[in-house]
Amino acid sequence: MPLSSRHLLGLQGVPREDIQLILDTATTFREVLERPIKKVPTLQGKTIVNLFYESSTRTRISFELAQKRLSADTINFSKSGSSTSKGETFKDTVKNIEAMKVDMIIVRHESAGVPQFLTRISNANIINAGDGRHEHPTQALLDMYSIRERLGKIEGLKVCIVGNIAHSRVALSNIHGLKSMGAEVSLCGPKTMIPKGIESTGVKVIHNIDEAIANNDVLNVLRIQLERKAGSTIPSLREYHNYFGITSERLEKFNRDIVILHPGPINRGVEISSEVADGPYQIILDQVTNGVAVRMAVLYLLGTKN
């Protein structure tokens, strides 16, 4: 069965069947990544543009590698050095790129709603690689895939998203996706980092990290986004770590087989200690590998959709 939409703009309202299809398809591509020749001709002849208006390392490289593994032609666009510095509008930039006969656009932008806007001015398939504080759907999908890979399921699990919820697009996509797949989702962080009214999404909010560790199967630990002035919402990074940092001492106190995720990049000694970042509880590098497989699945399902 194909996906219900020709775009991936977010996970809010995305049917459970679509998420299940993406995760199951990613399993096939995960096997491809273990082969000596890690390439298939699935999207040969397709042209994909990575339209990144924000800095990115993991997401951009992951998408580019996924495209090359599927034999697509890839074009990379970055805001710096582009005609936007000469006064060209975003709409005109996209129209000029589309005139080169591209099939798909992967977009990351500092403003929420840009991927949705692209669907109105472009005939290409649009995939949201992160828009403002809105959503980051492929990150949530790779998180869910990694959880299922480690624990064998998602439904019925208790997952707590920890940290800078207010500045995070990863959190919102995870909330929508995990709840669609039957997980029980909670949030943990300082009150200044929890958006008002977030409980309306059906999540529980707590402010005690020990409670989060004691009562959950998975912790998805978010980065303190200093570039978005998140540090101004807490007294200091040291104090944040003292009250909400994930440390080996805290984990060992409860002696639970808990799984630790982190979307990266990690601020070691802030949201997570080095011992935990390199320890047996975390699956951080598995997330990175799985991200390529999940993005291959999304590209394949949208790129071959009639």
Description:
The protein is α/β, with parallel strands linked by helices. It folds into two domains: 16-136 and 288-303, Aspartate/ornithine carbamoyltransferase (Rossmann fold, 3-Layer(aba) Sandwich), CATH 3.40.50.1370; 137-284, 3-Layer(aba) Sandwich (Rossmann fold), CATH 3.40.50.1370. It has helices at 16-32, 58-69, 90-98, 114-121, 137-151, 169-180, 209-215, 237-244, 248-254, 274-277, 284-303; strands at 47-52, 73-78, 104-109, 125-131, 158-162, 184-188, 204-206, 218-221, 259-261. Helix 2 (58-69) links the parallel strand 1 (47-52) and strand 2. Helix 2 packs across helix 11 (284-303), helix 5 (137-151) crosses helix 6 (169-180) and helix 5 packs across helix 11. The longest helix is centred in the last third of the chain and has 20 residues, at 284-303. The mean pLDDT is 93.
| CATH topology type of the largest domain | Rossmann fold
Give the tally of β-strands. Answer: 9
How big is the Rg? 19 Å
Looking at the overall shape, the CATH architecture of the largest domain is: 3-Layer(aba) Sandwich
Top CATH class of the largest domain: Alpha Beta
Spatial arrangement of strands, main beta sheet: 7-6-5-8-9
Structural class: alpha/beta
- The number of domains: 2
Strand content: 5-15%
Order of helices and strands: HEHEHEHEHEHEEHEHHEHH
Overall body shape: globular
